[in-house]
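Same chain as my last thread, 301 residues:
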Amino acid sequence: MIIFLISIFTFMLVSLIPGDPVYAMLGTEVSQEEYDRVFHELKLDQPVLHRYFSWLGGALQGDWGQSTQFHKSTLEVINERIPITLFFSISAFLISIPLGILFGVISAVYRGRPADTAVTLIANITACLPQFWIALLVMYVFAMKLGWLPSYGFTWFHVDLVTGIRQSIMPLFCLSLGGIATVTRQTRSSMLEVIRQDYVRTARSKGISQRKVIYLHALKNALIPVITILGMRLGSMLAGSMFIESVFNIPGMGSLFVKAIQSRDIPVVQACVLVTALVSCIINLMTDILYAVVDPRVRYE
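reply #2:
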C-alpha cells in the first residue's frame, strides 16, 4: 500500500512540474518531428490517469520505460547503478554499527570523565555537519592538497583492488561519520538509562566482572532504541549517497537521480524514487524483525 501511494505521489508530482519536458530533455532547437516523436513516446498526448495506470502496469511487469538520457531501458540503467550505491551504503552501515556502539558504551561507562566529554563533543559536532561539506573538506585536504587519494571515480575491487580501495576511502568515511555519531549518541543515552536498573546493580553485587555486566546484561537491553536508529540511518545513507556520489563522481543511484532530474529524464526519476521507497520499506521490515531477535519479549507481545 505504501509503495502504491508513493507511486501515485511520484507520478503526479513529476507530471505537474512546470515547463515542457520534451524541450527540457532535447533543448529548444529540436525539430518538430523529433518533438512529436518524443512527446508520443512519453505518452504526454494521453490523459494523466491513463498514463499512470499504463506506467504502473508496465512497472509491475518489469517495464519501466526507456531512459531518454541514456537511450536504453530504465531497468537496465538502474541495474547498472544500484549495486554501487548498495555497496557504499551497506559498507558504511557496517562500519558505523560497531564503532558507534563502542564509543557509546565507553561514553556511558565513563560518564563525566574526559573520555565521555571528548566522545560526546565530537559526536555532537559531527552529527551537525552536512555530508556534502565533509566530502568537499576531505577532498580538498587528501586529494587536492596532499594528493594521497583520488578525488573521483569508482572501481570494483575485483577489477583493481588497490585503485578500488583508494577510491572508496573518502566516500566511505563521509557516509560513515554521521552514522557513527548518531549511533554513539543513542547508545550512550540508552546505556545510561539501563545501567541504573536494579538487575544491573544485582549483577554487580554478585561479583560479575564489569565487562560482562556491560556487554552481556546492559548492552543487550539498551539495543532496542539503537536498532530503530540503525534502521533509519541505513535509509538516510541511501538518500545521502546522492550528495556523496555527486561530489566524488561515483556512478551510483544518487548521481543517476541528480542527472535524471537535471535532464528531466522522467522514467528514470520515477524509477529511482520507487526503488528508494522499496528499499526503505524492506529496511523497516528488517528492523521490526531485529526487535524480536534482540528482545525475546517482543515475540510474546
